[in-house]
Amino acid sequence: PAENLGFHQAQTTCWDHPKMTELYQALADLNNIKFSAYRTAMKLRRVQKALRLDLVAQSSLAEVFREQELQQGEHVMDVVEMIHGLTALYERLEEERSVLVNIPLCVDMCLNWLLNVYDSARNGKMRVLSFQMGLVSLCNADVQEKYKYLFRQVSGPGGLTDQRHLSLLLHEAIQIPRQLGEVAAFGGSNVEPSVRSCFRLAPGKPAIEVSHFLEWMSLEPQSMVWLPVLHRVTAAESTKHQAKCYICKQCPIKGFRYRSLKQFNVDICQTCFLTGRSTKGKKLHYPIMEYYTPTTSGEKMRDFAKTLKNKFRSKQYFTKHPQRGYLPVQSVLEAEASETPCSSPKLPHADTHSRIEHYASRYVNYPATHIQPLQQRLPCSHHSLTLYSSPRPDRSIDLTVL
Question: Core-most of 29, 135, 241, 326, by most CB within 10 Å?
Fold first, then answer.
């Protein structure tokens, strides 16, 4: 079937479409982002746009899955089925959105990406659940609706999911950052600690309901945090803040805006903050608030009050009251025995990242029962810092840095 992919050249093995190669090369520009969740999310945002999946509604995806009879998650698809499903999807997009879509190119690119994530050895096979996870993760939908839809794909007739099926779901999800070489920052390929963490919300029960899964996801567990961060990245793209960056003097600040809750009138743009840029003599103090939509007058007053309180708090206070971060996972190499299916064949860079996982495991020992002090969290695979945050209903995020 390789001839049908449009990017297999005679006498050479070239798995990637030329446009996909260009895309991957462009992603290297984001490697200067010091925080793994944001680095991964911003790379996925570029992939999402290149594949035009940012225009695809989740309802359209569900309809295509139904029409193509792609609803049995553990059924194995071949390349022909994948091509038929993707062609139907992009034809529906062109019709529903009245946009001009280069359907052959989009099908090639999307198939290329899905194979890279879920079939790197090019056996021409992948589970329906893999196909669903890849497309639903990057489609245009509310993140809560994505959680609900994905949970339903591994639920039984009563709407319940046991540990084995939740493992399948989380295994498919973690392959996405794994393909980008970021898996160590999200707890590694072993999803069993995440499964146990989720099931603690239903103690003693053999299966969980969607409400338990949504509650767990609202905590932004480390293994899945890249997905809600992707949605914040998307929301921030069109946002302008009437503030001046303390470092580079950009005004207005575009995208994410970071405000110190320890210093008055200290705002940082996303480029300066995420890349760690600083100016001599201007040290940024934590805690920090992240905004991905314009601030309201009420939020400004709240932040002023918090900053005023923090001005009178000692260093000992912040040591004793660390800001909450993401729900952690246990050691990235924990547990030999697992119900999780075998990982996809490794990409050329996977050996390096497996070693990173091994080295990281020497320094981390996560109790999964509570949120760890910051200094005990898993180090980022390539950088010394990882960004952690707590979700807030008012579209702003309290931040701490590992």
Answer: 326
